[in-house]
Amino acid sequence: MYAAQTEEAAAAKDVVAGIILLDGIRVRALFDTAASHSFIDRLFAELHGIPLIFLLHTGHVVVPNHILDIREYSPNCPIRVGEWIMPIDLLALRKLGDFDVVLGMDWLTKYYATIDCKNRTVTFREPGQTEVVFSGCRSSLFAMTISSSRARQLK
């Protein structure tokens, strides 16, 4: 479903990771074509006052060696990339590794995203809109930044 660790994602050649704005908050994001849906780390949502709503029915997500229950989601969260603001519905998971959000195919297809893994970019080409290009992390410095940020949160 998603690359759980930043170090793995930074080294992987088939995902793009970087910092985006979610409701005005800087978040560590993974653009993941292997994820059918988009997710937010539950603790991150709580810490930043992002409202979570209970689902009418518990959902399930299958990841390697696990089945995770989904009980909450955050609807219509505004994500800003360049000048674009793109609402997203995020399912809440207890742990997303070193990421705050995982942006899956439900959202990527809605906004006509094309991922260029070699150049670590995501291009949004929604009809009638000006094209926007997001440049993701290109080095392992992102992984070190994430790890030090997590360490500060744990203090």
TrEMBL record:
Entries under InterPro entries matching the protein: Peptidase_aspartic_dom_sf, RTL1-rel
Pfam families the record matches: RVP_2
SUPFAM superfamilies: Acid proteases (SSF50630)
Organism superkingdom: Eukaryota
Protein name from the UniProt record: Reverse transcriptase domain-containing protein
